[in-house]
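Good morning,

Attaching, inline, the backbone tokens for the sequence recovery test we're adding to the shared suite. The designed sequence is right after.
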């Protein structure tokens, strides 16, 4: 009888651990993940080695807004980037006199590292097609961010999710 009880307890533990692993897998794959900032392209908003939570549900619903900070699969290398959405489908993004305009209206960007936004190639106007977004890093210093100014708009399908919370370092914990 004692052996049967031990086997039952062991099976209960195995079942509990398996269930927890499945739940963790589902959460990480479809609901929420974490990411680490690698580099300075989002300075001053985010700094190198900051750790963020990313809402993956938004990537499945496609409800993005101007200003969202998104994680997406890099179009030009292995890995992911973190950038800010500047243009949504149907928008025209222009950089004129070192300032950013969306649909002819200058946008006020109190989150950037510089008062000026430089071009990274000869193009200064982008029309954002359906299923695409235009993204830029907050670090607008020369060479500060590799973004849509260099690699053009990105597919919404490449977006992992919206970064919404910084949990490390503890001194800067909070919503983005």
């Amino acid at each position: 009888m004692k052996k049967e009880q031990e086997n039952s307890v062991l099976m209960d533990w195995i079942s509990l651990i398996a269930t927890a692993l499945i739940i963790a897998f589902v959460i990480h794959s479809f609901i929420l993940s974490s990411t680490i900032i690698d580099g300075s392209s989002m300075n001053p908003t985010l700094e190198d080695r900051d750790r963020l939570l990313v809402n993956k549900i938004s990537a499945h619903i496609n409800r993005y807004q101007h200003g969202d900070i998104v994680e997406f699969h890099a179009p030009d290398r292995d890995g992911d980037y973190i950038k800010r959405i500047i243009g949504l489908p149907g928008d025209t993004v222009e950089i004129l006199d070192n300032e950013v305009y969306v649909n002819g209206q200058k946008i006020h960007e109190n989150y950037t590292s510089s008062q000026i936004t430089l071009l990274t190639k000869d193009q200064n106007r982008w029309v954002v097609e359906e299923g695409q977004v235009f993204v830029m890093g907050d670090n607008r210093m020369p060479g500060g961010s590799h973004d849509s100014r260099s690699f053009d708009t990105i597919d919404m399908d490449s977006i992992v999710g919206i970064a919404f919370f910084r949990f490390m370092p503890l001194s800067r914990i909070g919503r983005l």
